[in-house]
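We store chain and fold; example below:
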Amino acid sequence: MHLAFAAGDARLQVSELTSLADLLPDHGRQHGLFTRLEALNSHADSTLARATSSAWDSETGLAVTRSGQRSAWAPLPRGPLGALLDRDDLIKQLTRMLDALTALDLPHGDLVVPAIGLDPATMISYGTVNAPRNTATFGFQQTDHIHVSPDEAIDYGSVVTRAADVAAELVARLIADHQAATGLR
């Protein structure tokens, strides 16, 4: 999940990135992206600040670039034979990410372009997290990644106040693009 702003609207100083790298781990914990006991790595350089989990099987992270782009990522839940794409669960996960990204006390523009993707997009089945199955359905084609075209700028205030609606639209677009790429219906 990425939130990108028009050039210059949200630009940060390199010194701000250094401070931000120290704040991101606690911010991610406060917003449910990281657990309290999870080991985290934080880093800043002249281009970005980020905090990531250290777990080999479940990398989750937060990042802010010098241009002001805010990003969050987490793995999909595990399914019977790979990742499980559960529409409702993914909407909740993206809503939590949007809430965390917009709660950062950073400069922002009036318009933001949200972007979403799946990397890698292989071995993904559809189902529900709360109803595990012993089988999985995959499309007749696999693709390495799915990136929904970030073609729409929306009001930043709407992302703050209607994060669940924004997340639902992004998930609908992601699923439509994934199904078109893999042949799943």
